[in-house]
Amino acid sequence: MKKITIFVLLLILTIFPASAQQNLIKVEVSETVELMAILSRMAGLREYNMDMAGQYTQDTEAWFAPYKGHPVIAYYQGLHNNNSISYDAVMSMAVHLEATKGEVKFVGDKTDLEKRWQNVNIEDFMVRINQFYTDTRFHKFFQGHRAFYDEALKTYEANVMTYFHQDWYPQFYGTEPTEKFRVVIGFTNGGGNYGTNRHLPGQAKEVFAICGYYIDPKTGKAFQNGAELSSTLIHEFNHSFVNPLLENEANNMLMMPIGQKLHKLSALSMERQAYTNWQTVINESIVRAAVIVYMMEQGYTNKQIQDELISQLCRDFRWMPELVTALRHYASHRNQYKTLHDFYPEITNALSKYLENEIRRAKEALK
Question: Given 110, 145, 180, which residue is the final one in a domain?
């Protein structure tokens, strides 16, 4: 009996290697992601009004047109105007909602929500979102598009998920993930992509990559450029490893003067991208550099890698070459640096040298 059991186990491991088992992330559609996005769309939030989903956009407009004067719309516009509820704050609430048995419930703890929700009366919000959910017959709309959602998820699995290798993260960062990764397609989000999380009592923290859905006007199809789209997915999951590094007090104190200078150097362009503080700029910078290293290590073409780097330079992450060089040094000296936390002082040095060079160039120009 033992021989048979061992043989079966070996057979399973042969057919499904460990790395493949780790990468089995199911791509999902979420009723509450669609609920919050469509409510935001009806309230006029521009980031949820990109009109890029073809027939689905038309269906949304037709179904919800009779409810444009619904009292919850005006209430939600007030939240937008007074509490800046927009962009990722919308998705933060979405993952803390569950729709079951005709009712929307809040799950988790309010303190886990994005900070813009902290001054909102959540109990009052839940009464109103349920009113909207019931009056608009939202569940019927969602169920009526189940076949469309399922087909789109299959396309995403085939064209994009093949580029995503979850086992790269613990190898690169030197730490095992303590979170559960989840990928959700936001069918009303257009070109918007958001990373958010929740931590339910007694469960592992869940990290969400909420990826937008849009139809390419040239091909009339969605999710065709899998390599390009995968960079967004790779980006979002890097945050769960990078952001905690800056929460470390020693790292924070070391990086603060550098981060403040970098933010000041590019404040206008960063704020247009909703990066309003130095901590966000630093985390975004390291994450974007890690994406490029991932692409280099996972066999992307030179053009794909160069396009990604140029894209970051165009977004005013002008120090990206220095960061990529630093992370590549880390990756090739793992006998010296077991984790990226061990290497963090060198990241600050690389950014500090970038600033020194910029200051020197400016002084030379004024001689």
Answer: 145
